[in-house]
Every structure is written in C-alpha cells, then in structure tokens.
Design goal:
With about 475 residues, the chain is an alpha/beta fold. About 50% of the residues lie in helices and about 10% in strands.
C-alpha cells in the first residue's frame, strides 16, 4: 500500500529518489576511478570524493526534477524519458561548470563528469524502466472499490490509474442504480449495486471501500459494512481520499459537515505572525535585488505601447474586503474601454507583444511586492479576483467565498498545479486547490509552493 507522505509524495517515490541518489553517486565514483585511478578514492570524506559526488548528485537530481522527470505520468514514453534525461544532464553540466568556476575546490578531476554522465544516462533510464515495471507488476497494490460514479469519483479513478507509483488499483465501481451495472468506466466498470458491496469486497479481495456520500447516503447496508470493517476492510469518504491523492478538495462531493469535522482549517496567531514576518522580509529583499529589472521592465512597457507602465485594479482580499492591486501593464491602455470587466482569453488580442513576454515570465506581477509589504497580500495564497467576477462565481460555485478566509497571494497551490484559465469551470478547478491549501497551510507547504513556483516560471508554464 502506498502511503502518501506530502501532497502525493509516497514511499515508492522516496524509494525511487533514494536509489537514484545512490546510482548517481556510484556513477561519479566509477567515473573518477576510470579517469584518475584508485588515487581518486584516497579521500572518501565529505570534503573529498564523497562530498563532491553528493554535490553532483544534488545538481543532477535538481535538473531531473526541473525537467519533470519525477512526474511519472510524463515519462511513460521511453523515448521521452531518454530525451528528458539527456536534457537534464546537459543542464547539469552548465550548472556544474558555473559552480566550478566560482568554487574550483569542488572539481573532482577533468573529464570525470562526462564519463559519469554516460553511466548516469544508461543507469537512470534502466532504473526508471525497472521501477515502472516493478510498480505495475511486482510491488503490492492497494485494491480500492469506489461507491459512486459522479465526476469526483471518476476523476479520482483517473488520477490513480495514471500514477502507477501510488500502488493503487481500482477494482470497480458501485452505483445505486442497478440498471447501470456492467456500464464501462475507464479501464474497469460498474461491477454491482449497493447490495453487492459485501460480495464484491470478498471476491475482489478489496482493501478499501471509498464511498461518495452524495450518491450512497441512506442506501448503505450498514450492519454488513460494519462486519467488513471489523474484519479488516477500510472505509473512507470519497472527499478524504480524493484530497489525499489529488491535492485538491472535491467541491462537488463536499458537505459543510465534512469541512467542520475533518482535520485542518486551523488558524494560529503565531503561525500568522511568522508568515507575515516572512512576507515582509522576502518582499523587501526581492524589491532591492530586482529593482534594476523592474525599472527596465517599466521602461520597456512605456516604449512598446502608449499608456502608464503600472496600472492598478480593485481586487477582493481577505475576509471579502477589497484592495488595490498593482501590476505592470500587459494590455493595451483601452483594453476594457468598450467591454468593461471580462475574462482574459487564450491568445487575447488585447495583450501587447511585450505584455505577452511579461506574462510568460511573471514580470508583470513584480509590483505586487508592494501589496505584500502593505499587507494586502501574502507571498502564498489564492490569487485575488475582481469584485465583479467574485460576485458571479459566488452565485455559481458552492463554497467559493471560503477562499477569502486567508490573504490572497502572489503565487499559490492552484497556480503551480493548474494551468492558467479564465472561465467558471477553471475557477471551480482552482477553488478546489485553494481549499486544499487553506486546509493544510503551513510554513513547509509555503516553501514547497515557492520552490514549485520557481520551476513554473523557469519552464514558463501556465501563463
């Protein structure tokens, strides 16, 4: 059974990373031996070959991470795996070359990394293929029966199907309507009705029954299910399992009682004070460091289109209050003169060529450092929306107002997990991530989101 440790990080993933670290260090040792002979192994301390090998391993794994090689859904294609690994090694050589220029003592020996890179290319590719095969066919898998066939249940099943490293297998679906039995869903189907749950659990050796209370409330054979629970079968709400594996909260399957009685959604004055101190310190430091870039960006806006370099706009913040947000102008000055407030679109004709570049690189967001200093925003939190859109979305989407329980952020869980969108459907999807963040918000999660944001900006995703 795969135990989720942190937002989808499982023991299987940790095994992958740990073994890969040993493989990378071993490749460097072998490269050092082939290039320098046994003299390379004379100093195996942290200041010698071992420490230098760990530096190389850390750089290579960081480049593998930034090239999406730890997202197992993207590297099922073996050709894609080889290409991305080669790209990551190329990036690693550039990073290491820069490090060696400033810190020459880290160099093991001329040509060692090139030799090691060949072993890494072969070893990492082979190890990933072995790991994927073992995860699918050898390692034990948790067998799950889904009770309910709504959108959240199918989305959960699709997520589990795509992520073999989780070690989960969907044995089938149960639907309250007997007429739907045998209807195919994904790679399985509806295997029975509510009364068939005990039989399916016994025949399919089910480890966990995941119940959508929206569809099954009041219809479950509680005495029989209690007997199964006492016999070792685990039962869970769909909302809890969906949250565990997808990193978002299924609004469609949500009830106020679940929000009230589930863990999380806790506020601490100490945590809030530390978060505020971090926001102020980081925003001031970034403003000083990035001042030349901000000045150059403002000048470029002025030179490429008429109008002010910075524009302001009213947004909804914490507790539903409004504040003025500042951004470098990426659209024409008269972008909404005729239409008023409207959603931005893909390939929006109102965006200037320089504005498009700013959006891809997030340069247009830099003036919001001032909003963070003022206390209107935090570094991490839900993105603030305009009052007109908030009023519309609150009417159309359940629990939408809950996202205003915390300060909005420059970046957030929804921004690093979901591509840019501007529609009610996109707002619903982002709300599910925002609620997950509000429930689990912590300093550790904020740092993780900031780290992911760097990758998002570098790869220019979601703009």
């Amino acid at each position: 059974m795969a135990t989720v440790l942190f937002r989808g990080l499982t023991w299987r993933t940790l095994t992958l990373i740990a073994f890969e670290t040993a493989l990378l260090v071993g490749a460097v040792f072998l490269g050092a031996y082939l290039r320098l002979g046994s003299v390379a192994w004379d100093d195996l301390t942290m200041g010698g070959l071992l420490g230098k090998s760990l530096v190389i391993s850390a750089v290579v794994q960081l480049c593998l991470y930034y090239n999406e090689l730890y997202d197992m859904r993207l590297v099922r294609d073996h050709r894609e795996l080889a290409v991305r690994t080669l790209q990551a090694l190329g990036a690693s050589s550039l990073v290491l070359g820069s490090m060696y220029f400033f810190f020459p003592d880290l160099v093991i020996g001329r040509g060692v990394f090139l030799i090691a890179a060949a072993f890494v290319m072969i070893g990492v590719t082979a190890w990933r293929l072995v790991f994927e095969f073992a995860a699918r066919h050898i390692a034990p898998r948790e067998r799950i029966l889904l009770v309910g066939t709504n959108q959240a249940a199918i989305a959960l099943a699709r997520e589990l199907l795509e992520r073999s490293e989780l070690g989960v297998r969907i044995v089938g679906f149960v639907d309250p309507d007997p007429a739907k039995v045998a209807t195919p869903i994904l790679n399985t189907g509806i295997t029975g009705g509510i009364d068939d749950i005990p039989r399916i659990v016994h025949e399919q050796k089910v480890d966990r029954v995941v119940v959508s209370l929206v569809e099954a409330r009041g219809k479950l054979p509680m005495e029989r299910l209690l007997e199964m629970k006492l016999a070792g079968v685990r039962f869970d709400h769909l909302a809890s399992v969906y949250e565990e594996y997808t990193g978002k909260i299924a609004v469609e399957n949500l009830r106020p009682s679940w929000l009230i009685f589930s863990a999380g959604f806790e506020k601490s004055s100490v945590a809030n004070s530390l978060k505020r101190a971090f926001d102020i310190g980081l925003s001031i430091a970034m403003s000083i460091v990035l001042l030349p870039i901000m000045a150059a960006t403002a000048l470029a806006v002025k030179l490429t289109s008429p109008g002010p370099a910075v524009y302001s706009q009213e947004r909804v913040g914490a507790d539903g209050g409004t504040f003025t947000i500042y951004k470098f102008r990426s659209m024409r000055q008269d972008a909404e003169a005729a239409t008023g407030a409207v959603w931005s679109q893909k390939n929006d004709p109102r965006i200037t060529p320089w504005g498009r570049f700013m959006r891809r690189t997030r340069l247009d967001e830099l003036p919001q450092l001032w909003n963070v200093v003022r206390g209107d925003m935090s570094f991490v939190g839900p993105r603030p929306e305009r009052p007109k859109f908030v009023a519309e979305l609150t009417e159309q989407i359940p629990f939408y107002g809950l996202r205003h329980a915390v300060k909005p952020g420059l970046t957030g869980w929804a921004q690093v997990r979901y591509t840019y969108g501007a529609s009610v459907e996109d707002a619903l999807e982002k709300l599910q991530y925002d609620l997950f963040y509000i429930k689990h918000m912590s300093a550790a999660m904020d740092f993780y989101i900031l780290f992911e944001t760097i990758k998002t900006v570098v790869l220019r995703r979601g703009a």
